[in-house]
Design goal:
3 strands, single chain, mainly alpha, elongated, 3-stranded antiparallel β-sheet, Arc Repressor Mutant, subunit A
């Protein structure tokens, strides 16, 4: 197979369209062209060209992952899902994830600790709410439970529920005790606290 022409893309700097004698074949990055010494007139078999395309996908996958990690920590699942939207093969995605793991750029346990701590300290969320959010980030149940056991002791979660309750009551207009209790219960449940903790803090802090 003869590479008939290599043309820079107008909208994507650093990427080039590759044409064979049969017309457009694929696009490759400048780094890939340099690595494999590709130029117009190069004679290359299709097996080798497919190998080159896979390498180019790998480079692109790494770039996407690095761009994601530049803004904040990510879970492995977040990165994997993003790479899938880029139509990369499962093998390439696995290679990119393996590379990130070897470099220490992704670690689901560290991610879970930082994520849960932020939700605990800044959002004042209860354990159940944080557990749900970690699940949505693709963190395994075992990792989530182990991390939350370290962050949320029963006493700390109760104190957190009281903080939420006091803030909520300060802006609740109704003075009716039953209404205040019902609304406070619903609010604390939505904030991720378990029913027993909610009942306890309400009974101790909203007096008839």
């Amino acid at each position: 197979m003869i590479i008939a022409r290599i043309q820079p893309q107008k909208r994507s700097k650093g990427r080039f369209n590759i044409y064979t004698e049969n017309g457009y074949y694929c696009s490759l990055s400048e780094d890939t062209l340099v690595k494999y010494s590709l130029s117009a007139g190069s004679d290359i078999d299709e097996v080798k060209l497919n190998e080159i395309r896979r390498f180019d996908e790998y480079l692109y996958g790494k770039k996407v992952a690095f761009d994601m990690l530049a803004s904040r920590m990510r879970s492995i699942s977040e990165i994997r899902n993003k790479l899938k939207t880029k139509k990369l093969s499962d093998d390439v995605i696995s290679d990119v994830i393996d590379h990130l793991l070897k470099m220490g750029l992704v670690d689901d346990e560290v991610f879970a600790i930082n994520f849960a701590t932020e939700k605990y300290q800044k959002k004042l969320l209860g354990r159940k709410a944080v557990m749900k959010k970690l699940y949505e980030k693709g963190i395994s149940g075992d990792i989530s439970r182990n991390v939350l056991e370290k962050i949320y002791s029963p006493e700390e979660e109760e104190n957190l529920a009281i903080q939420n309750l006091m803030k909520y009551l300060s802006r609740l207009k109704s003075s009716d005790i039953m209404i205040r209790k019902r609304k406070a219960y619903d609010y604390l449940i939505r904030k991720g606290f378990d029913g027993d903790t909610v009942i306890k803090v309400i009974s101790e802090n909203i007096k008839d």
